[in-house]
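Need HET-domain-containing protein's 3D structure for a figure. Predict it.
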Amino acid sequence: MRLLRRCDTGGFSLTQFGAEAILPYAILSHTWGADTEEVTFEDLTNGTGKDKPGYEKIRFCGEQAALDDLEYFWIDTCCIDKRSTDVPSKGEPMSKNEAFASSRWFTRGWTLQELIAPPRALFLDQDWIKIGTKETLLDRITEISGIHAEILASPYDPGLTTIAQKMSWAAGERPLGMRTLHIAFWRKLIKMTHDHSIFAWRGHGKPEHSGFLASSPDDFSDSATTCLCIPRTLEWEPYSWTNLGVRIRLDAVYGEHGSHDRNQFYVILDCCHDSRPNTRIGVYTAYIGGVQRRIRSNELHEVEYTEDSALADQFGEPIYPRPIDYVDDLNRGA
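Structure prediction for HET-domain-containing protein:
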């Protein structure tokens, strides 16, 4: 990792640190200007770039870091050697006179982590005039980003939010490099968690039949309030990845509203909406062509959960779930 520091001569130098180094430093989170405007790694190493508009960013960031008692600071445009292969995606040219809420900064690929990780954040406009801090702008940032205020205001604990909630932050137009969620992504994630909210998605405009896993963060756009519930049964088992896909044991309710079609049913997940803790979320499934598929993937079912561990459908009638082993079909259509 390379960090910038101000020199006694008024210039700036780069210092290389090893991966084991732990030290405080400031980060400039910004949108990029045109290639010819930004100071690059080569400019700093060659002593050039002082006439570029982007040099003002370095000067200001160095001054602000010093005011915050920080010796070092980091700016992606000049601390990363663009000739290496490990280079982040480039943003679009900076636009002018945008309101805070519609700023392109909120659509950058790095914005989520830069909102959540730092304990303090100072927001400035393109003329380096202070807009506010993460604390004073908390309500507006929550409204824009969809991230709960308590997450932004406190040291972030990943265990306090569900996968569905995290995915909802990535939904929309944010260029996170996650427009499509591939099987490899889910395989790795499933090895790390037993969070049922991973299955509580709605595929807006998706085919009638699909697999059990979402194909885009946009499928979680309505999941900002999805939270986990205590398992309904003591026979709860973790789900796993097999050569066919996801294997999960869930309570299934066959048919709907009294019908007994054993080819169609919904399965009940151990998650709910935070405003309705006495419910459980379910998804519709069916046997199609000899394999299990999720059907009506643009819908989620919701059932009541009472203190005596009974379930009731939306009409108040008791239902009698039966455990099934669900194995996802990896050969599903797109």
